[in-house]
Design brief:
The protein is of the alpha/beta class and 464 residues long. It has 20 helices and 14 strands. The chain has a five-stranded parallel β-sheet with strand order 2-1-3-4-5, sandwiched between helices. A five-stranded parallel β-sheet has the order 7-8-11-6-12. Strands 9-10 form a two-stranded antiparallel sheet. Strand 1, helix 2 and strand 2 form a beta-alpha-beta unit. Helix 3 runs parallel beside helix 4 (68-78).
Amino acid sequence: MKTNEESFSGSVLVVDDDQAMRDLLVLGLGARGYRVSTAASGQIALSMLKDEPFDVVVTDLRMPAMGGLEVAREVKARLSDVPVIVLTAFGDYDGAIEAVRAGAYDFFAKPIKMEVLAAAVHRAATHRALTRRVHELERSAAPPKVFGELVGTSAPMLRLYDLLGRLANSESSVLITGESGTGKEVVAEALHKSSPRAQGPFVALNCAALPEGMLESELFGHEKGAFTDARTARPGLFLAAHHGTLFLDEIAELPLPLQAKLLRALQERVVRPMGSNSEVPFDVRLLAATNRDLETMVESGQFRKDLYFRIQVIEVHLPPLRSRGSDVLVLAQHFLTILAARAKKGVVGFTPQAAERLLNYTWPGNVRELQNAIEHAVALCTHDHITLENLPERTERHRRSPESLIDASQLLTLEEMEKQYILQVLDASGGNKTVAAKVLGLDRTTLWRKLERYQISVPDRVKP
């Protein structure tokens, strides 16, 4: 399997007056995916840097006319974001110290193992790319928003924007799923604002926040005297959201008796307030959200099947932050701009080291945890850039394993993997759903639901 260094494609300028050493580095780094150019002197190297912005410069320390120290100083002055790695003779520690003072990114004594140098080049190129990305985010007036207030341009988010765009004019109920902290209410508000109901109210309720008795009153309203504390009549949220959108967050926490009442309200499009004999019509689009597996809850009897199908006409799944690649930095800069202004602090960005820490952390709490971490960092920051010391300690303790430090935007969600596997099994079974269900360990009804969910159309080439 290729390592990160072997799979990296970047440009390296090798500066050495020794032809044999130049040839050796071209061969070694080129075999690991790098585009390598060479210069026989420091003057030639600086001339080449005017025409091509190399990702990394690797230079010998001792060269006639212009040595590696001067090369490092000139590169630092002209192209401050291009890292320079200096190679020194064995035991030349004074030269190594001077190289660092001159602005070198790293230094190594000759002879050096190619694997060690390639790893250093990879780190240096990654550092440069990260530094440039951080500076771009600082310069941008606002983060890219493709749909509503949603922030990010990773592949999973672009797929999400496409789906939300197709739902803009729909009146169908939508079930928004995803881990806690992924931004389900933000998506719900974006759907409301893009819909024909945008001028109407957007009313949200967390179903886990209230006990059953109060929850029924909140949803359907009550008459005066319906219960002990009902001193005045209250219309309820269905009527409060009339001609608009009602968003029920954590709908999986809705008690079974209320599930039945909610189902009837959605079917009949009327509500009966507590203590009333009259029914009141309403005009509401329902959006619901959960971080739990409702299909499993239906199978275990914890959630009504008929209500599940009523609210899950269309399902929108939100990707976790760990699968969104560099969106972490885009969101971090977005939150920093807002929170620094609120705190009246002149914090404008992140050091490359802090940005790398943000990228390497797994973010189990998703976007909500990231916002909390940036607020923590802004409160502690005493300079114009967030440093490693400002970030919460947990971002160091729970880092990704080396194997996971790849472009997370290219990873598949569990749902995408499941969809692909279902397609493979169906193809192998010749479209026979009975055989496919048996191989997948599902009953036919569950397989049918998943085909509907993933919009998979399978012609019955073999009659089940």
